[in-house]
Amino acid sequence: LLALRNESLRCWSNIPFITMPLSRTHGKSFAHRSELRHAKRIVVKLGSAVVTRGDECGLALGRLASIVEQVSMLQNQGREMMIVTSGAVAFGKQRLRHEILLSQSVRQALHSGQNQLKDMAIPVLEARACAAAGQSGLMALYEAMFTQYSICAAQILVTNLDFHDEQKRRNLNGTLHELLRMNIVPIINTNDAVVPPPEPNSDLQGVNVISVKDNDSLAARLAVEMKTDLLIVLSDVEGLFDSPPGSDDAKLIDIFYPGDQQSVTFGTKSRVGMGGMEAKVKAALWALQGGTSVVIANGTYPKISGHVITDIVEGKKVGTFFSEVKPAGPTVEQQGEMARAGGRALAALQPEQRAEIIYHLADLLTDQREEILSANKKDLEEAERRLALPLMKRLSLSTSKLNSLAIGLRQIAASSQESVGRVIRRTRIAKDLELEQVTVPIGVLLVIFESRPDCLPQVSALAIASGNGLLLKGGKEAAHSNQILHHLTQEALSIHGVKDAVQLVNTREEVEDLCHLDKLIDLIIPRGSSQLVRDIQKAAKGIPVMGHSEGICHVYVDTEASVEKVTRIVRDSKCEYPAACNALETLLIHRDLLRTPLFDQIIDMLRVEQVKIHAGPKFASYLTFSPSEVKSLRTEYGDLECCIEVVDSVQEAIDHIHKYGSSHTDVIITENEKTAEFFLQHVDSACVFWNASTRFSDGYRFGLGKGLSGIILCCLQLGI
After folding, report:
1. Nearest C-alpha neighbor of 383 from the set 474, 508, 315
2. What is d(CA 614, CA 606) in angstroms, rounded to the nearest whole number?
3. Based on the number of CB atoms within 10 Å of its own CB, is 508 exposed (0-12), middle (13-18) or buried (19 or more)?
4. Which of 41, 360, 367, 625 could form a disulfide with 80 if both were Cys (CB 3.0 to 4.6 A apart)?
5. Do 441 and 343 touch, CB atoms closer than 8 A?
């Protein structure tokens, strides 16, 4: 994000925004999409197909209003916005047709009678006349729209000759700079009322010369002349495709590099306008060579939020981004295709071969522990000042963690023999005709995880066992750890030639952008905070998300609880690994246990373990001097903190759990079997235990594999 200095809050159209100081030395184009948010001076080119209606007579007012709103928002953020617009011919055609119809109807009504009105024909309208009739109306419309946001707009009409005359070029440059200095948005267009037709051989002729023969070349010329940071070219297609859009196997090109033209087959030009995609690409490459970044996108049907211009400036994956810097590795789209092919090869292996890969990965985790811990140490040192203590604990790896991971992986390998190809149901439909339901891989999984490098081998083993391709997106705080663990995973996969089945996304791809790759990804599994899960569920477009909620786990201490069991279970539930999702967060105590030796022992144990206690409302009412009262009974602390609340009965404990819990894991401690059975039957949670620690809620303990991986493996084996 941009650093905010001397920020001031302003308001327009009832929407608050922050004015951001933006500065950048022009010279080189941006290398990555994420850098586009630093763009200070921006040119937006509106193609004829964007500005005009489908019938080519009149303007698409709804689209124009949205574009003006976005440009105004960026202008009011402190950016310098310029618009190169089409539309004068279409607007003029609408006006002239109306005038001709009106004139003809009057004349024919006078001379021929009403019966011949239906036979009136509209003559072919000359484009220059349409432009002359439409320029003033188009500009009046822009002025009216920008006025709604307290922004002034100014019209500038140019021709190719204006760029060949040095004095005119200087005048144009000075005018534009002065308008930008006064916070005015220049609206620029070719003067189609007087412009001559383009010369047949006139084309882009290098970095110093560009012929202005359409608004694409005009926008590129202005962008370079004005040293703009970003040129946004809006048309009626999503961006640049490797073959004509609509053709079989046509794929949108996310990033286009100079020299890639040979790999692209251009189709016909748009329904209106003078240029086609080939003209746009040539103009974009010319501007890129001049130091201006370029994005070509769809301005008629925005793909993400309906605000294509602001989405591009925010660095979202919209349209085709032109860059001079090629990444060292494959793009995420290429990684998705590699994972798809690798996953299919993985699924074709024998179960024993997939198990062998996982066993080998388990051995590598222990054999290469020094390299793993060294990489993890780098992550911890870099994150020490940025991460809170609970996240640091999740980020940390140790010899015992690696040993535990290896044991968990071996369990996955042992239990995965029938993960793929197991017949769940066989039905005889008719003689010699049988129908089988068989477990099969899902396809390509995208697993997004935060601060948990141990998640990488867990999920990788799970994907290998179930024959799925895998894309992994880890947090940048664990970059070094993830890199070495992914390297070991691919080393294990290589023993049977399926190295590409598991891919680690190392590009600057935003999580939200990954969630839009519906043609490459079949299931998204987020592992992290509840906020991460909610964000991914909101961002995912057409891809199922296997999410989870918070780990707000409860332990209820009944009046008939064993003194010995209570302290051991509560200690293990809260203190063994407080950052885990299955750690105790709220301790419910029956009212009759207050001021008893058992209650004192619980409090003393928590103090010895340095657990910070927060009092629930009812518990606080019983105390003269209580601990800090809890802010919310629905809190996942993830640290050596917990809430203590008092209940009057097992039913009140159940009601509390249902109201404030997350249906993860809840426990009763009691020696009364009838009370325990009542609790087990009535608590609606994934795991409900009697006289056991919440930490027992773990795939490793269940024999399914470590952590959430075990739960997911169970779902995959059941064909869910």
Report:
1. 474
2. 12
3. middle
4. 41
5. yes
285 within 8 A of 322, measured Cβ to Cβ: yes
Both tokens of 477, joined, read 């705080």
- Convert the pLDDT of each residue in 452-506 to its tens digit: 899 999 999 999 999 999 999 998 899 999 999 999 999 999 999 999 999 999 8
SS3 track for 493-512:
HHHHCCHHHEEECCCCCCHH
* Reported confidence tier of residue 40, pLDDT bands at 50, 70, 90: very high
Residues 672-708 as b/e (b if ≥16 CB within 10 A, e otherwise) read: eeebbebbeeebebebbbebbbbbbbbbbeeebbbbb
Helix, strand or coil, per DSSP, at residue 420: coil
Q: What share of the chain is helix, strand, coil (3-state, %, to 5)?
A: 45, 15, 40
- Token duo for residue 160: 């190719």
Residue 282 per-residue DSSP state: H
**Quick check: 1 pLDDT over 50?**
no
Kindly give, in sequence order, each residue whose CB lies less than 8 Å from that of residue 593, ignoring residues fewer than 6 positions away: 557, 559, 561, 599
Q: What is the pLDDT of residue 692?
A: 96
Q: Comparing 91-105, 416-430, 583-597, which segment has the lowest mean pLDDT? A: 91-105
